[in-house]
Please model this.
Amino acid sequence: MSTTAKIDSNEFRTKYGPWALIVGASHGLGEAFPRQLAALGMNCILVARSAEKLQALQGQLESEFGIEVLSLTQDLSLPGATERMVEAVGSREIGLLVYNAGSPPYAKHFLKGDMADWSGLVVKNAQTLMETCFHFGGEMVERGRGGVVLVGSHAAFGGTKKLSVYTATKAFGANLGESLWAEWSDKGVDVINLLIANTDTPTLRAHMAEHGLEVTPEMNIPIPEHIVRVGLAQLPNGPSFVFPDDEHPQEGKPTRGQHRRDYVIESTRITATFVGDD
Model:
């Protein structure tokens, strides 16, 4: 399947509808996901901190695509965020969960940062992520269909200077996603980690500006709309898609994502020897 293959909207809604929950839906990838899902006919629930941005996006989606949209203003770094999402969703059936939150508050040496900010990043990228997958993923498994997209980062592959807590929490998300894929792939629920490098978003531009840097055409940084198209097309092909490395695979050479899949399958086989395969 081409990484940018056209998605059949009827098949997509049947598998992942009728509602998509997009967590972190204000700008960049968080805006591109609901726009493309709305174009497929999916109703959307938008979650982010900025009420103004959410209301603007909600109005645009409802007007342009004629879908139902619900917005929830919520800081995901605060305890109880998942409970508020569950309450807001109510009886609506969430067939697709997109967890797109998790940018670092800043790039800074660990000891020069603020512990409250680091703790909030851990809550957002680990605790709230885990609780959200547990609740809505559990409902999908019960129904026997659904999908989960965890937007991650190449930072998950190892530590780096000035991004200590960010890399640590992104590793948590990547391992959680691959483990859930191993547990849910035979239960009708697709899970994929969309592990991306730098993306031309307002957040990236703001971080760079703080250090006297700017995005230039020569950097050839991918745009959110393209990454989202690839991610949604690859949803059935978990557990991980490493962008842009896996977008143009070389014939006869496994991609980084395929290496991740092989590792999860083999690791699961070995683990079953000690804990069973029930």
